[in-house]
Amino acid sequence: MVTGGGTAGHVIPSIPIIRRLLDDGLKVSFIGSTSGLEELLVEGLDLDFYGITTGKLRRYFSFENLVDGFRVFIGIWQAFGLIRRIKPVVVFSKGGYVAFPVVFAAWLNRVPVVAHESDLTPGLANRLCLPFIKSLCLNFPETSVRARNVLITGTAVRPDLLNGDAERGREWLSVPQDLRVLVVVGGSLGAAAINTVVRESLARLCETYFVVHVCGAHQVDESHVRPGYAQYEYIADEWGDVLATADLVISRSGANALYELLALKKVNILIPLSKRASRGDQIENAAMAERRGWSFVVPEETLNSDTLLSAVEFVERDRAYWLNNLQTFEVRDSVTLIYEELARAARK
What Å distances lie between residue 92 and 106, 214, 250, 261, CA to CA? Predict the structure, then answer.
């Protein structure tokens, strides 16, 4: 049984694991929320999907916590019944607010749980799950967490990213051969601050690059159409090829996005979400990558056209330095490591 959700980042990294399980002839069930997000993301996989009632987990006082606490209780009851009926031998949890009811229900049913944490500090859902899991898989050795059995596995990167083809990507984008490629991505929902500053900087950027701007749903701005600039709400099947073409990537620093850039050895500039919009996990991820010499960081609070263009110039001037540092990032066979841990947990 696999669980996780609330955002795409709590589901997509599970998909290579699910494919491996299915390829080995195992039956897989997925428990997500009733929102439809998780069911959409796993569509096409040969598994049984179940939606349960979920409540958002907050770190601050709110009267909505009372209502959502009741929803969590209902979700635990529903997950308990599903686990009782399906009888999984092991549960894999990728986190998010969907996960806690399933993990707790699995513990009540004495079903072992293997969880995965992507960030340097566990999210609230995973922290609540820690007492009820057998093993915790981590992206980075720097992650500080107390758990009985901790493994550094990295994140399962989708094969289409690892096997991206630069020539195919350039052809799909219609990039002239004499232009280098800058890819800007703000996450699956885009990033208004990044979008605005990139568009303000296009005159300078397009002197050197073909700019591929993944700006998020409903964020394409037709008033900025110009040669050497391509806007997309989202890139799906061609994303691996597009990343393969990139000479430089500007990105948020969510753990999954960061891990993919490091695994692909892409020179990058990170613009982490500020604490106004997050719990600070992206700031921590970016700071770790900057300390290791893997990324250059521009805080969102200082982001403007001047700081962005200065960062691009600085990184390109010392490109060999960044490429050399990126070679020190160890890419693990995450799918196999997590798969083997699931097998060990199921046997105990």
Answer: 10, 31, 32, 24
Helix (H, G, I), strand (E, B), or coil: what is residue 194?
helix
Alpha carbon 221 to its chain centroid, in Å, reads 26
Could you give phi then psi for residue 116, rounded to 5 degrees? Answer: -130, 130
Q: For the chain (length 348 residues), average pLDDT per consecutive 10?
A: 88 94 97 89 95 70 60 93 97 93 97 93 84 94 83 92 95 92 79 92 96 92 93 92 97 93 97 78 94 96 97 96 96 95 92
Backbone φ, ψ for residue 212 (5° rounding): -105, 115
Q: Please name the residue that has the structure tokens 């799950």.
A: 129
CB 112 within 8 A of CB 91: yes
Residue 263's φ and ψ, nearest 5 degrees, are: -60, -35
DSSP string, 317-337: HTHHHHHHHHTTSPPP-HHHH
In order of 35, 70, 97, 124, 161, the CA distances from 63 in angstroms are: 22, 12, 18, 18, 43
Residue pair 125/75 in contact by the 8 Å Cβ criterion: no
